[in-house]
Amino acid sequence: MELLHEELTNLIIKTFYEVYNELGYGFLEKVYQNSLYLELKNKGLKVEPQKRIPVFYKGTEVGEYFADLMVEDKIILELKAADYIVKEFENQILNYLRATDCEVGLLLNFGKKPEFKRKIFENDRK
Fold first, then answer.
1. CB–CB of 69/85 below 8 Å?
2. Which terminal residue of the chain, N or C, has fewer Cβ atoms less than 10 Å from its own Cβ?
3. The predicted structure's pLDDT at residue 1
4. Are 53 and 60 in contact (CB under 8 A)?
5. What CATH architecture does domain 6-125 belong to?
6. What is the average per-residue pLDDT within 75-90?
7. Is pLDDT above 70 for 73?
8. Exposed, middle or buried: residue 37 (CB in 10 Å: 0-12, 13-18, 19+)?
C-alpha cells in the first residue's frame, strides 16, 4: 500500500536524520527548527516556519496555533526536543491535522535518540 505523500515524507525524514546527525542531542527546539528549515529549503521545498493555522468551531474562528514547519502546504511538522515521544505530542499533531486541510503530519523528536511518528487524518473524516 502506498503511503500518502510518501516521497515527500521520506525526504523530510531523511533530512531530519541529517540534521540530527549533524547537531546531535541537547539543543533547544528552535535550533532544530531553524536547521531543518534551512535543509528543506536547500532541497528546493516550499517551507513555512510558524505557519498560523486558525481553528474553527461551527464556522467561527475560535483560536489559532502555529505549526513549527509546514512543507509544500501538505505536511505539518511538529518538532520536539524531549527525552521521548509521549501520547500528548501525538494527540497534538492529530489535532493540528483535524483543524486543517493537511492529511499528513510528522512528529519529529530530536531526543537522546532521534524518533519520528507519521500521523494521518484524512479529509473525508473532517
1. no
2. N
3. 64
4. no
5. Alpha-Beta Complex (3.90)
6. 95
7. yes
8. buried
